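Changelog excerpt

This revision adds worked examples to the README so contributors can see how folded entries look when concatenated. The first example is reproduced verbatim below.
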Amino acid sequence: MAFGEVVHYVIQPAGWPEPVRGIASLLSPFHCLDSSLRPSNEHPANASSSTFSEPLVSREVPAPGPYTAKDFQVLIHSTAAGLIALAELPHYGGERSTVPLWSQLLHALLNTLSPDVLILEDAPFVMPRAQNVASQPSNLIDGHATLIAAHGIFSTPRTHSGSSRTSSRNEEDKDESMYSADSDSCDGSGSVDSLDLPLQAHMLPGRGRCLSAVLPVLLVADSNNIIPLLCSTLYQRHVWGICQPVVGLCCSRTGTTAMAIFGWLDSDQSEEGCMATHLALAADDRLDPSMGVFDFTDTRSSISLAQFVLGLRTHFQDIKGAISIEAVDSLTPLHWRSDLPDFETQLEGRLDERVASWTYQVHVQTSSSEASSSSTPRTPSPLLDTALVSYETMSSPFLHTIVEDEEVHGANACLPQETRVTKVKERGRGSQPRSSKNSSKRTGPSPQPPAEIRSSTSSRAPSPYANSRFATLSDTGLKDGLTISNWLFERHAFTVGRIPVLSKELADTTGINAMVEIYDQMTTFTWSDSIKVILSNAEADSLVSDIRTELCNTDGSPDCQSSTINVPSSEDAEFISSRISILLHAVNGARQCDDVAKLHGANEADRRHGWDALLLNFFQPVFGQRDVLLERQLNLPRNLAADDSSFATRARFVASTYVTLCSTQFTSLVTTTDTSGSWEQAMVAQRQAMQFVVDLGQRNTEEKFVEVVAHHSSLDPCTGKCDAILVIPCPGVATAMLQRISGVDQQENFLKSFMLIQGLKPEKSDSNAVENSSQIGKTIGHRQKTTSGRSLQVPSSSSRISESDRNKLHNPFLYHPDSNQATQKKETVLPKNIPRDEPSGKDLLLPVLLAEYKKRDESAISTAMNQMKTYLVSAVTFLSKLGITDQPVFGLVVNGTLGAITMGWKTNGQIYIMERNVRHYDIRDPFQALQFVSILPRLARHGHSLRRLLEKQLASIDVNKLTSKPWSKLPQRQEDERLAAAEQTGLEQSLAQDRS
């Protein structure tokens, strides 16, 4: 598909076309002024090596700004080192995303362009209309930008400035108000005037009232999206009467190189629909900063890129100064948006027929379900009917979309038609911002088992839920409906608080006291003068020196630490200090994202890249030793109650033991002013446990219990996508286990059903970030916009545990426990020279920490916690099958800039998830960010201890037992499908005999 672009390939620095020659002059080595920025191994005499072209003689040299690349040299070197280390690691089934590392550098550079620069990450944008409108699929209207730096226009006065970005960081989180362009209003009051602008003046998708407009200055996208992104921006600028060229960077999501692309519109073409876009880029994709081809792993190249980005300050001000709403009203409209096709060319005179078809669709959709889900989109316009294009046209080879949660297994493994809600994320994990008002309605009632299961067995296995959809279901306890409480109970899992019990017998049975001690050893922190000295003397970028001063001036209050705790160790302090600049930039980035969220709203990707960067830099993946995997599919555990018909007779007893545990935790908690919040959570947990017993009593017979569990099992999700997982590779272990299994098919089935982490399907490599430049000129990427189905909402009876109480119970950010900590010993440091084996795609990976990210939204906390519970139960179940019990796996639940550390373990056949009274950290605060990253080296050592446990008992693992009844849900699902098929066959045979 072409958008009418004309591509100009440039072969030398002096060959840039006249319209972009001024802005392209920023690529000249003339702008990399400071010789101190050269890599230490490069002699000044070699500054103009043969790799780089001669400086560009330009008539237009932008004035230098207050920052140079020298202010970012530590971050530049750290980014290069991190990307080089990442490239040496095995892929484990899927290309590794490099975005979290290089986007942090770009984010830091772009923040200097202007005090009010607006930076959006993983942002959807409206694609331009194709040159041949009839060939453009009507549901492929959104592209996907990796990063956009822009100037924003808002309908309300801005409430912060650059100077307030630091002073307002520690305000209460409840004062944060987020809104986006698709909100009805920024504060919910409806008193804010909308911007009176046509849709053609916007390039970001949105709904409802227009409260803001975003005009991009620098565009970053992969090769599939960069061209339509540049074209959309050029058309938008024309609508605003802005003539400046556009600047883009084509950056791979899995590579390390970037190519600058400049664009402009023909000045002598004004006829509507005939404006040609011109794009200029280097003809050769070999590394050459003077031609706009950069490599983040090459420090000299990154320095040139930094100076180029910093040089865009004047360009930013030019765009800002040219903005005029009056100019939009005075110019002839340009209908460029793909979601607003032209009536004549698109409908070809068939308007009446199309409207009639659309009206019928609306009638069918509204009458086919009892109530619509909150996530159900607007009814499609009659102008956007897929009947105009073929299926082959819609299935573009450049589409890179993945379902948010899981791969679909089996012919029937899809969401039920009446409850299907498909969430599609592009590989960069972006999601469109939605207002907090809308997002608060995401939780739906739990589906109740249909009446027919009480009298007969369905001949067809129902389709399972996606894990993300399942996590949004309302939790009504152990009533008959599908709930997270039922899911946990049927897998012998309970949730607990971080509260040691006074009963020694209960402590030995549950392991709770030992696990609280381990949790404290992992998460507590001592703030000492010696650590301050180490951090003060560490090398850091001057740009973040104020944040380091703020950190070192922090006094560790009793609410933040305990003087009796001797962690982190001096080795960890030295390790963190060597990366202190990365930490401070992460804090600064989190603060900037917070400002953007208050103005424009936020999506999950705005924060996840910052968290990913912290995990990658401070867990520090090392070949064969430890690793950080992003967005991986996890096997979820099978329903144990569905396999055990005798569980019905023991269920109430099991629930009563949970009552005892919650009651004991409640009475063991010393009530003080500092523990009042924990006391309230413990009281609600006790009430919930009692309600569980009541709920089970309402299942009158064992037969009904078995039917309800079978119904739950038929809907349980099979896999779930974890945002990040910290693992310890065990090279050779999987190979040793496979050697005990005969047959290639049996081996493949074992890997698929036994391994916790599912290997992703091989993706088309995008490691060459800069494709051949002629290929970029031909490649047009699209993003498929999927339509969610309507959900069949089944009313559920009310529970005695109120929704507000459940929110208190499952909110790890509600209370902070650090005023009540135990004394801990200084931990030992594992030797650094651990022998390493060659890793492979079949390595067994031991889970250490699993992460689930959500944007800042209180209504999303319970969803994130539910997903985390499924991950932790899966992880500890997997470890138990390897003979590892009484050992914790940790979880990181993120809500914007807040991250809570949870934990799960298995003892005496019972799983426990610690979700209450846990520690959480706000990475906008440098001290809390320091506390968080100090946990990661300790987690690495914990992971190595798990590997030693596995190595000791590897010979005793019975592989035949593991294969006879796999722990994961997928084999159980396949068993149910085979049983349903056999029953269907028997039913058909019986009917045939009756007819005969």
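The second example, added in the same revision:
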Amino acid sequence: MRPLTPADLNPAILKVQYAVRGELAIKAEELREKLQGEKHDLPFKKVISSNIGNPQQKGLDQPFLTFTRQVAALMEYPPLAEIVKDKWPQDVLDRAKELQEEIGSIGAYSHSKGVPLIRKHVAKFIEERDGYPSDPEDIFLTAGASAGVSLLLNVLITPNVTGILIPIPQYPLYTATLAQFSGVALPYHLSEPNGWSTSLDEIRAALAKAEKEGVKPRALVVINPGNPTGAILDKSTMQDLVRLCEEHSLVLLADEVYQANLHRPDTHPFHSFKQVVRELNSPIPLFSFHSISKGVKGECGRRGGYFECTNISEEVRALLYKMASVSLCPPLSGQIGVDCLVRPPRPNDPSYPLWKRETDTIHEALRHRTQLMAQRLNSLPGVSCVDSPGALYLYPKLELPDKAVEEAQRLGRSPDTLYALQLLEETGICVVPGSGFGQKDGEHHYRLTCLCPGVEEYVSALENFHLKFLKKYGGL
């Protein structure tokens, strides 16, 4: 019998690249395993996974929120309620009872769009956030925001014909999913000198190029707050983007999973595209995504999220439901997490003081790390870094010596991949090269998270490596 080979597979998947879990992440796991051996010769004691926004992973150890875990525990094992009834807060017990009465066992499938009661709670959360009505029938619960993005791109794309406008730099989910479904990426560059702002001129240029090449633009992706940049859109820019979508009949895909990660909310507040679309009374089709993986919850492994449909016809919504039904339902543990995201403890609830203390502590830690890391990186020769007002990352720009660029070319790698690999091998710090997110020709970046504890030691290792790298390749 002839064995199965890559040549037998869908050729589209051979084009899929996902840098966040790519070469660097694989190398990091090899080094982590090597560290467990007694006679390793590695110059570091641990691998630091700064390549992915996974707050609760081992080594980063962001604390979970007690309220979420207590509700989840009661949903997993309802008899626990009798054991903890005089020990756990009453609002936790009441929440679990309410959900159990609606759901029953979380070992059973739910509605394919998600538990109806939880979708009602999501709609109420959106109404309170934006000041405009939200219909639970417009809510689809998903296995993380990524599953919602994949579903929407799948239904929007006609293979090799449909173009999707994506920001550069972008989260690699978008280019990977476009490759999977044979969509055409239409990149528009963000402006680094202006704090990674969004330029309408860049988007118009991308639209003109698509028309010239016979590609039909169908949707505009906006990530706000940005990943990997951390930039936050002002309302005026958002209004201009909505009007541009009207002008070109574009669907707007609003990735808003970092909406709670605001380091300077007084000067850089978050506004949802749902709110802006309603304020303008705009007819544009809008899909808005949110997740339990980011913010201060960091419950990545539960796989919980949702998207809301705005200005979407019943006929299209029915087709989305059909496609969602193919996967039966999103994980119930993730749906429970979504309920806790959109219905956190209120000020008069017994769980509120602890919840407030836990969330404030995480917000402050992220703010402090982001500010300190940006300041220290900017003090290095050949490094410039926008001090991100949002999200979980920094995206420093590197001015690399010519000899380093030449060495990378000799090895068949991008220069920032060479830099990131040597950083990993010498310090144990795993980052993602900027080439995995997209960047202008001749530029070099890397993305790192602001999730790492022991930030002084962490940043010192980055500084020492960078100076050694420059000296090695004649940059000092």
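Reviewer comment on example two: The chain has 16 helices and 14 strands. The chain has a mean pLDDT of 91.
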